[in-house]
Amino acid sequence: MNAPLNYVPRSDFKKRTFAATQDPHLRQSFRSAMDFLMAKRQAQFPDQEAFEHLRALGEEVRRYSLSRLPELLEQLEANLTRNGVKVHWAEDAEEANAIFLEISRSHGATRLIKGKSMVSEEIELNHEMAKHGVDCLESDMGEYIVQLDGEKPSHIIMPAIHKTKEQIARLFHEKVPGVDYTDSVDELIQIGRRILRENFRDAHIGVSGVNFAVAETGSLCLVENEGNGRMCTTVPPVHIAITGIEKVVEKLEHVVPLYTLLPRSATGQAITTYFNVISGPRKPGEKDGPKEVHLILLDNGRSQAYADEQLRQTLQCIRCGACMNHCPVYTRIGGHAYGTTYPGPIGEIVSPHMMGLTATHELPFASSLCGACGDVCPVKIPIPDILMRLRREASHEAEPGRPALRGQGAGRNRLVSLAFAAWRTIYSHPGLYRLYAWAASRLNFLTPKSQLGWTASRTPLIPARQTLRDRLKNRA
User: Fold this and answer.
1) How far apart, in whole angstroms, are the C-alpha atoms of residue 267 and residue 89?
2) What is the CA radius of gyration of the chain?
3) Kind and range of the H or E run holding 244
4) What is the spatial order of strands in the sheet that 212-214 belongs to?
């Protein structure tokens, strides 16, 4: 597993989206998968009034937790430390990876086995550890498949949703020694299980994410379906959990509404197969569990979002993926086209804080603004409103006296700005407007047939031969 991973470059977003729309297999696969997930979610929320009540409760819990975030993080650290968990703080991906490496070296670890964790994808943990001779093996089946193929996940809940069983069968046959080709799903699952079972036993360190961190009890809650998360957090002698600083809640009872919303919104399940609550390492007399537990609390741009009242709402996210499942753009182009760890609508509003607008200024524009993402969000994040805010930030320099986002104004195009300035001048002066309309109607034969992105899927905009004013005069 030391081979370099083929991460999707963050540039050339338009080129990647064009390629995705030209792939009929990809479009068909995503369309059928998203339709299936939307139907399953809808079946879990048949009563719209009850859903809105639960949704309001989920939003209230997240907003309350964020309003007390600094205090709750200190309380979480104190209680985790009391429980025997070692807490680390990381400002960015580089610091987080350095902590992983330091712990690995202190234990002489050369192999890590991971449960599903989008935050570890965010810091590109596998890739960074491989540079230092430490293998990181994914144990979630979907994550294992994309790791085997040198890819990133294309969905935050279902990493390999873009692959067919035939593609997975070929991948196993080509990349796993001694495996014959079979497209039987049951056999493929059993092959993966056999490989992973051996690695659970042999791994020096287990890695996991955290869905909710409870400040009052010093507990880490982990939601999963396959049991691999429980194996990663109990079998290896050392467990390292990593999470964003926004995942903290005050009380265990605050987890209940969020847990009720999460699986129903994500995969259409009433409840997940496993719900793990981790409150410390193995205690004297206990027969299982890790001897040492670490938690890495990662900022990586979250403080920038937290500092702004409107953008803070992005931190309410519980990573269910419902916005992606209902997004017509994501459904058409898939996750890899975005070139970011978090694709789809939620990625468009969280990635600018993590990576800066220089690398992500195109993402807020990759939306139809239909509002479906905001309608289905279980914690009521106003995604369309935030997208509009980020579009302005991407296209305009910061106003004097107002904090700027990292990379603000990176999407500003001088030619476009000049065109809109001219439009504003013409439309704010009646005399200029009449002159422009007269010239445009009589010189319409000079209109270019290719009009950038507009004519990629539409007919050219050509001024009419007569203005409305002229036509009304002629009628009179």
Assistant:
1) 32
2) 25
3) strand 238-244
4) 248-249, 212-214, 219-224, 274-278
What the block records as the tokens of 212 is: 């909710």
Q: What are phi and psi of 202, to 5 degrees?
A: -90, -15
Q: How many CB atoms lie within 10 A of CB 7?
A: 13
Residue 146 contacts residue 238 (beta carbons within 8 Å):
no
CB atoms under 10 Å from CB of 327, counted, come to 25
**pLDDT reading at 118 higher than 90:** yes
Q: What is the mean pLDDT of the chain?
A: 91
β-bridge pairing 135-138 and 219-224: unpaired
- 304-317 as b/e, with b when 16 or more CB fall inside 10 Å? bbbebeebbbbbbb
Residues in the chain: 476
User: Strand pairing partners for 220?
Assistant: 213, 278
CB count within 10 Å of CB 118 equals 19
Residues of the chain with CATH 3.40.50.10420: 54-303
CA distance 111 to 464: 69
DSSP string, 348-359: HHHHHHHH-HHH
CATH number at 54-303 = 3.40.50.10420
DSSP alpha helix (H) spans, 107-246 = 118-122, 125-130, 141-148, 165-175, 185-202, 228-234
Region at 4 (left for phi over 0; alpha for psi -120 to 50; beta for the rest)? beta
Tell me the mean pLDDT in the region 352-365: 92
Q: Is the pLDDT of residue 3 over 80?
A: no
User: What torsion do the CA atoms of 120, 126, 130, 132 make, to the nearest 10 degrees?
Assistant: 10
- What phi, psi does 393 have (nearest 5°)? -65, -35
Q: What angle do CA 344, 349, 355 make, to 5 degrees?
A: 100
Q: Return d(Cα 230, Cα 277) in angstroms, integer.
A: 10
Listed range (3-17, 178-192, 237-251, 448-462) with the worst mean pLDDT? 3-17
